[in-house]
Amino acid sequence: MTATAVVMMIIAMVTVWGGLIAAVVNLARHPEVAEAEPAPPVEL
Known about the structure:
Elements: H1 3-29
């Protein structure tokens, strides 16, 4: 592999893995709170 290919591969890997790590950290800090059971539909 050429040096350019290695640099581009590293940039791509940092982008993908960095985004994954950022998403996991974000969910760990701000977990999605499940709402209570939805109300039953109102029949007319």
